[in-house]
DNA sequence: TTGATGTGTCGGAAGTTTCCGACGTATCAA
DNA sequence: TTGATACGTCGGAAACTTCCGACACATCAA
């Protein structure tokens, strides 16, 4: 059993696409799977990873399961990124000076 | 040979920590490796992944190599996240209604 | 030069991820 | 009830990741 790891959940392009799709509204598994060049078990397993990362929530409707997006764990990634966006214009400018100097050759 | 994949590069906690460390300034490989419970080859290989994702730049200084942070590819992640932060207060509010309703049991 | 240091990379081991077919279970329609 | 549908999950294959020791090479100090 693995821990809920948001970064790891986002490392797969299929899972990122699933999350993007779910922005438009909840979707059943077969419906989702038909949009990928993948079998249903694979999509089901990607959904399991997203579920463990708490990025999706499942809602049973009859014999289908609608998956809903829960974007809240993405704030962990956003917070991590902030450590770099607030990383100081001065150092960024200095870096770009160096890169400019290199490209001048 | 693998493509430069920023999301995949961030999926490993050691690599994320390396990037955080490099905010404070460039570091040589042995210097970096001493901060982890890891051998030098492992750190060197993590740096290779970060290099392919263009998140770091190497600067040879004598027999050492100083690695510099280049945070610019992180904007790809930031842009991707924006698709969710601008994902509409109305849907988020609706989601939280549902979650509240569930927790009321 | 010789010897020590800093680094990249290869070969291989161990673990993890990704995918599929097959199966079991629940639900629905008739 | 019977048959079809929707889904989760298991077993296993293939590919990838992560790590290490060993080695090669360049640089420095003497």
List the helices and strands and how they pair.
The structure is a homodimer of 105-residue chains.
Chain A: H1 6-10, H2 13-22, E1 27-28, H3 29-34, H4 40-52, E2 56-61, E3 64-69, H5 74-85, H6 89-103
Antiparallel strand pairs in A: 1-3, 2-3
Chain A binds a DNA duplex (30 and 30 nucleotides) through residues 2, 12, 14, 28-30, 38-42, 44-49, 60, 62-65.
What features would you describe in this structure?
- Chains A, B: InterPro entries: ArsR-like_HTH, HTH_ArsR_DNA-bd_dom, HTH_MetalResp_TranReg, WH-like_DNA-bd_sf, WH_DNA-bd_sf.
- Chains A, B: GO terms for molecular function: DNA binding; DNA-binding transcription factor activity.
- Chains A, B: Pfam families: HTH_5.
- 2 copies of one chain form a homodimer.
- The first copy, chain A, has 105 residues and is an alpha+beta fold.
- Chain A folds into 2 domains: 1-71, Orthogonal Bundle (Arc Repressor Mutant, subunit A), CATH 1.10.10.10; 73-105, no CATH class.
- Chain A is 58% helix and 13% strand.
- Chain A has 6 helices and 3 strands; from the N terminus they run ααβααββαα.
- The first copy, chain A, has helices at residues 6-10, 13-22, 29-34, 40-52, 74-85, 89-103; strands at 27-28, 56-61, 64-69.
- The radius of gyration of chain A is 19 Å and the shape is elongated.
- The model of chain A has no long low-confidence stretch (mean pLDDT 88).
- Chain A binds a DNA duplex (30 and 30 nucleotides) through helix 4.
């Amino acid at each position: 059993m693995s821990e809920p790891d948001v970064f790891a959940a986002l490392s797969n392009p299929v899972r990122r696409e699933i999350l993007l799709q779910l922005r438009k509204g909840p979707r059943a598994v077969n419906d989702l799977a038909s949009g990928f060049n993948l079998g249903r078990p694979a999509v089901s397993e990607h959904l399991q990873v997203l579920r463990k990362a708490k990025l999706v929530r499942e809602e049973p409707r009859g014999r289908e399961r609608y998956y809903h997006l829960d974007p809240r764990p993405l704030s962990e990634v956003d917070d991590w990124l902030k450590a770099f966006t607030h990383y100081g214009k001065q150092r960024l400018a200095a870096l770009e000076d160096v890169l400019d100097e290199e490209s001048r050759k």
